[in-house]
Design a protein that fits this description.
heterodimer, A: alpha/beta, Rossmann fold, two-stranded antiparallel sheet, 9 helices, elongated, B: mainly alpha, 2 domains, 20 helices
């Protein structure tokens, strides 16, 4: 028995040692086209709390700079708005365009169907559109396709950080997905990643949106309500308030330019 | 490697965090932390094995830490239960009159079921009272202690067996606490009976080399099932059932089959790990799953699925209710009652009760129609066998869905699977989720591989050189790492 236990311990020790050493090394291995992934041993043991990817369900304390929500003055100048994200942009842009028209803003809308933080975070699409339209205000809505991803922080935090990085110093508001069920943490993760006042939570008990047949996207009438709430929030509570006086009830409009990106296969 | 002092202090800080109480991160068998701790545990256990009392104290301490990690001080509940039922079992044994024996038995069952009821069903009762009477009772802030459903059934069976004179009570409380808290079977079973376990503990035989290695093999099989198959299937299930309205009938039917395989791989994988670890320590915990999706009827399914629970329900609910001894109508009632209790045992929600009910109905129908159907269709006909299997599999899969989906989602999935089923989705589904399809095909094949092949593989592993074992271990762990970051395509092209 003791010999067998010794052998099992040796197997575990050598095996775990190999994985630990591999996770610390800079060597990238490939088997054909497949990358040999590294475990999180290194990070689990040595990452400090500030740099550690949170465990599922773990509440991460915000950096001090993000905790303070300062009451900002409204910027009354006319803006060039880039409204970009997943198919939820399609729900919102008709009403948002009406807001832009009423308040003299220019609005460029980019709908990338079936997109996610991962898709935007691994490409320069957002950066390219910033370069193309030169916005001074960004509205982004992403997360609807990632409501039920497990271990969301481990899988998506880096992409959310990358998206925020791509927006640079341009004032932005991240519009959270209008959940139709509880998520696995995407809303928490985004709200904790952006500066205070830059995230609009679309999933609160007082927000109810009727859904289209797919059960996910809000119907046109509900999308108008949703947009109204977002615009009111941006103007009164966000970190970068801009003028968004409400157009007549139910009025919609076309954006300055609309680009539709097909889903990735 | 250059470890600075900051690295070391950070490392200790992280290790301390990992070892501290954390309900979100229990000590599960497929976690790296468990294996690091097991690496420390095993040699000490090996050294203490021949000194029984010391060994028991050590294993109990480890088991209670295992409990503490996810349930904090609630481990005291387990200690208290073991002390009370150990004492009651001895009282029952020594009482000369049946009346007094029954008195002690009643006390024990009321305490056990009552404790389970408080922790597991209080909020369910409050929720239903609020719904019924439009009242506004606030839910209680309760933590469900780790494995309470499992150890409650274990302790009930022990006291009942002592009452019936099937077993002698143990005189040593440590032995009883060891049995009840034994960490491999603590979190998710198997619900091993005292009559099977305690004699092994009394004998305290050192495990043979082949027992240790075959246990390790079983652990690796369990890890593959749980961390590769189940976790990968689970991603698609979660997404599809999370927004069932947005999916076609074909996709939902696939998600249903996927969930059936997911829950099998998850639960049987965890059981394999538990049984394997137990075997490595020299204890036989029995078998808990016997290829349930090979079943050709629901009765057979329940002889193969979660065997330790179904046999417990049979012995301690169905038979005491009268079993099949009081005529057909009573038998059907007993079956329904047993399955409803079984359903409620799985969780405090109506979907679990319905799940039990759905299986109860199927069992009754099978019992009612077995004889006439056997006369109509020859049971050795391959086509008949195939259709029996297919109907059982589809029924079991759709019933399984109730273990994860709420009632409205379940209804959407069932209705769309039968009214919106379009084979045009086959190709796009395969194109979008190739890995899911490959894994599903592999698990189906593995499910139907003859048992002899598995036994042969286990024997080969036992006999193999330790370097081969190490390589297999590394391959399994690497596969887990690879698949843990693989994601299932959530939506088919243009769907969302």
């Amino acid at each position: 028995m003791k010999k067998a236990y010794f052998a099992i311990c040796a197997i575990l020790l050598v095996g775990l040692g190999v994985f630990y050493a591999f996770s610390r090394s800079d060597i990238d291995l490939k088997l054909g086209e497949t990358e040999i992934k590294k475990g999180t041993f290194q990070e689990t043991l040595f990452a400090s709390d500030q740099h550690r990817v949170a465990k599922p369900g773990e509440k991460v304390p915000l950096p001090l700079s993000k905790k303070k929500s300062e009451k900002a003055e409204m910027d009354t100048t006319k803006k060039t708005i880039l409204f970009i994200g997943d198919s939820m942009v399609e729900c919102l842009f008709p009403r948002m365009s009406a807001y832009a028209k009423k308040n003299g803003h220019t609005i460029y809308c980019v709908v990338w169907y079936s997109s996610s933080t991962e898709i935007y975070g691994t490409r320069t699409t957002l950066k390219d559109y910033i370069k193309k339209f030169k916005p001074d205000y960004i509205l982004i809505t992403l997360g609807g396709n990632e409501l039920f991803i497990r271990d969301i922080r481990q899988k998506r935090q880096k992409y959310v950080d990358e998206i925020i990085k791509q927006m640079g110093n341009i004032p932005f508001v991240w519009i959270g997905p209008p959940n139709w069920k509880d998520d696995t943490g995407i809303n928490d993760m985004i709200s904790e990643s952006v500066p205070a006042g830059c995230f609009y939570l679309s999933y609160t008990p007082d927000q109810h949106y009727d859904r289209k047949k797919d059960g996910a996207h809000p119907k046109a009438s509900s999308s108008i309500l949703w947009a109204d709430r977002i615009c009111k929030w941006i103007m009164t509570k966000s970190a970068h308030p801009i003028r968004l006086e409400a157009p007549p009830a139910g009025e919609t409009a076309r954006p300055t330019k609309l680009e539709l990106l097909q889903p990735l296969r | 490697m250059n470890l600075t002092s900051i690295d070391v202090s950070t490392m200790f800080h992280n290790i301390w965090n990992m070892l501290s109480y954390d309900p979100e991160n229990p000590l599960i068998f497929n976690s790296g932390l468990f294996w690091v701790l097991f690496l420390l545990f095993l040699p000490i256990y090996g050294m203490l094995k021949s000194r029984k009392t010391k060994m028991m104290v050590f294993v109990i301490a480890f088991s209670l830490y295992f409990f503490y990690k996810s349930s904090e001080l609630y481990f005291l509940l387990l200690v208290g239960t073991s002390l009370i039922d150990w004492f009651i079992a001895k009282q029952i044994h020594h009482e000369p009159t049946v009346k007094m024996k029954r008195f002690w038995l009643t006390i024990s069952i009321v305490l056990s079921v009552g404790t389970l009821g408080v922790f597991k069903y209080s909020n369910f009762v409050i929720f239903n009272l609020n719904e019924l009477f439009k009242s506004n009772f606030q839910p209680l802030d309760l933590v469900l202690p780790l494995g309470i459903s499992y150890y409650t059934f274990k302790t009930i069976s022990y006291v009942v067996d002592v009452y019936k004179g099937k077993i002698e009570p143990t005189n040593n409380w440590l032995e009883y606490l060891f049995y009840l808290s034994f960490f491999p079977a603590l979190a998710m079973g198997p619900i091993v009976r005292a009559s099977h376990f305690l004699p092994q503990l009394k004998e305290n035989k050192a495990p043979s080399k082949s027992m240790v290695y075959s246990g390790f093999w079983l652990v690796l099989v369990g890890v593959i099932k749980k961390a590769i198959f189940a976790d990968y299937f689970g991603q698609y299930t979660m997404i599809a059932f999370g927004s069932a309205d947005g999916y076609s009938g074909y996709e939902l039917a696939m998600a249903t089959i996927g969930f059936a395989m997911q829950i099998y791989c998850d639960f049987s994988g965890y059981s394999d790990m538990a049984i394997g670890i137990g075997r490595m320590m020299g204890f036989d915990l029995g078998i808990n799953f016997d290829f349930p999706y090979r079943s050709q009827n629901v009765t057979e399914f329940w002889k193969r699925w979660h065997i330790s629970l179904s046999s417990w329900l049979k012995d301690y609910v169905y038979i005491p209710l009268g079993g099949n001894r009081r005529g057909k109508p009573r038998q059907y009632f007993n079956l329904m009652a047993t399955m409803l209790i079984g359903g409620l045992w799985h969780g405090a929600a109506w979907n679990f009760v319905v799940w039990g009910g759905v299986h109860g109905v199927a069992l009754c129908i099978h019992k009612m129609t077995k004889k006439p159907l056997d006369r109509l269709f020859p049971s050795d006909n391959k086509i008949v066998i195939f259709f029996c299997w297919l109907i059982t599999f589809i029924y079991a899969s759709f019933a399984m869905m109730l273990l994860t989906a709420d009632m409205s989602t379940a209804w959407t999935v069932i209705t769309k699977s039968f009214t919106d089923f379009d084979l045009a989705y086959v190709v796009p589904f395969f194109t979008a989720r190739k890995m899911w399809c490959y894994l599903m095909i592999i698990i189906f094949i593995l499910h139907f591989v003859p048992k002899k092949v598995y036994e042969l593989m286990s024997k080969m592993f036992v006999k193999s050189h330790w370097i081969v074992k190490l390589l297999i271990f590394i391959v399994v762990v690497q596969l887990v790492i690879q698949f843990s970051s693989e994601e299932v395509q959530p939506f088919i092209y243009n769907q969302f």
